[in-house]
Amino acid sequence: VQLVQSGAELRNPGASVKVSCKASGYTFTSYYIVWVRQAPGQGLEWMGRIDPEDGGTKYAQKFQGRVTFTADTSTSTAYVELSSLRSEDTAMYYCARTDGDYWGLRRDEYDYWGQGTQVTVSS
Known about the structure:
11 strands, 0% helix
């Protein structure tokens, strides 16, 4: 099993960013993909999850209206897009796999993780 994320991104404030997470080695539609991030000096923050089987999403309230999760089953790739970026969005973004539909951060339930994508928001 592997989750391979796209490379580092640098954006100006107000812009958008889209990060990918390509899954391999398992049936993509059989597991949820969660997105979490870690800002410098901070703990992990759960952003939400997507069910690749039907595209159903759950978003943390903090990100409602600014974040969109999508999944392309033809390429086994999940995406997170974050808009209206601000400096506080500077963080390492991770995708992870879980077989449970949990609300909130449940890192013990994530069995595989992507390698992380650094997103930096700076003018």
